[in-house]
Amino acid sequence: MEQNQVSPSALERRIDIAVSLADIEKEVDARLKRMARTVKMPGFRPGKVPMKIVAQTHGGQARGEAVGAAVEKAFGDTVREQNLRVAGYPSIEPKDGAAEGTLAFSAVFEVYPEVVVGELAGQQIERPALAVGDAEVDKTLDVLRKQRTSFAAADRAAAEGDRVAIDFTGRKDGEVFEGGEAQDFPFVIGAGAMLKDFEAAVTGLKAGEGKTFDLTFPDDYHATELAGKTVQFEITVKQVEGPVLPEIDADFARSLGVADGDVAKLREEVKGNLEREVKRRIQAKVKEQVMNALIAVTPIEVPKALVQAESQQLADNARRDLEMRGMKTKDIPVDPSWFAEQAERRVRLGLIMAELVKANELQAKPEQIRALVEEMAQSYEDPSELVRWYYAQPERLAQAEAVVIEDNVVAWVSEKAQATDKDVTFDELMGNAG
């Protein structure tokens, strides 16, 4: 075997390989002999087919396999000798100009980049700070009450939050348009089911009252034949119902899973769930800043092969997700190129984090994995069942291990960078700030 190496780019390598024809012929002969022991052919008992016929029938297959194995071995020997870390799979191409008695090939491939994590001391990490108290519990209970809103008849003008039932007829150029007529049609004012101008026209009317008004549909309205058009509506309010929120009492507590109806216990459970959610969101925001900091201080070129493989994986995941939602992916082609930017970032961070974990011994410890699984289980009715589920399969536990490793990296980077705490409101952290 002979090889020489040149470097056309930072990560790309080309190795020229020459394999001995004599060695290939020996391997072809060995493969044919092995095939002859089991090959079946009409007119012959298994294992009794003459070698000449076996060679005529399976010689091409044996030769192709022998050449492939020889090239693979030569390539593997070369990269091991030169201590190269191959990223992805090599592209093998025949090469002209082989010496007598040899076959020549060129292997083109990429190697992993050298990763040196940069100085983190100048990077700013801002940690959101929020203590969950009674105000946050009250706000969450209010949300839960609104989710369980009922409605009762109200002898008054319709207002925001009320549920109304109306008859309406819409005309475009004097003619009723498709979908422009309904009876006893219910909707909640302010819920966004109807256009704001339509809701505004209903607001202030009592049951039995009606009006006629013009309405102009938005330019981007989903029904293209109505987009940007002005129509005339006639409406009659049939019923007005006001919202009734449940009291925070034993029945309310039981509806949320507190079997004995203890309101204090309900508040305690809500607070515990909120604390876990707040912790999760704070960790997510800090993690994003840490990952951005690592990318900023560690400029590296990433192997295209790894990015392509990650893009394909993301596309496959998206395709499976669509299929689980009942969509036919053959009607919705999913192109891996859509995920190229996301894939490049994931590969880059994976390379940086792998180096960081190895260099600073940030691997996940068994007790850390156990603590994480038990913490995740706290929001379940039977926490021990979820713990058993995770520990039943190594693949599931590996997911928890990956999370712990990320947490270890985040903690390590936060210590090295300029990390400061910043008080935030509940709405800011939850993304509810207007």
UniProtKB/TrEMBL annotation:
InterPro entries: PPIase_dom_sf, PPIase_FKBP_dom, Trig_fac, Trigger_fac_C, Trigger_fac_C_sf, Trigger_fac_ribosome-bd_bac, Trigger_fac_ribosome-bd_sf, Trigger_fact/SurA_dom_sf. It comes from the Bacteria. One of its GO terms (cellular component) is cytoplasm. Residues 161-221 form the PPIase FKBP-type domain. Pfam families: FKBP_C, Trigger_C, Trigger_N. Keywords: Cell cycle, Cell division, Chaperone, Cytoplasm, Isomerase, Rotamase. Its EC number is 5.2.1.8. It catalyses: [protein]-peptidylproline (omega=180) = [protein]-peptidylproline (omega=0). It is found in: Cytoplasm. Gene3D superfamilies: 3.10.50.40, Trigger factor ribosome-binding domain (3.30.70.1050), Trigger factor, C-terminal domain (1.10.3120.10). GO terms for molecular function: peptidyl-prolyl cis-trans isomerase activity; protein folding chaperone; ribosome binding. GO terms for biological process: 'de novo' cotranslational protein folding; cell division; protein transport; protein unfolding. Involved in protein export. Acts as a chaperone by maintaining the newly synthesized protein in an open conformation. Functions as a peptidyl-prolyl cis-trans isomerase. Consists of 3 domains; the N-terminus binds the ribosome, the middle domain has PPIase activity, while the C-terminus has intrinsic chaperone activity on its own. PANTHER family: TRIGGER FACTOR CHAPERONE AND PEPTIDYL-PROLYL CIS/TRANS ISOMERASE, TRIGGER FACTOR-LIKE PROTEIN TIG, CHLOROPLASTIC. Belongs to the FKBP-type PPIase family. Tig subfamily. This is Trigger factor. The lineage of its organism: Bacteria, Pseudomonadati, Pseudomonadota, Betaproteobacteria, Rhodocyclales.
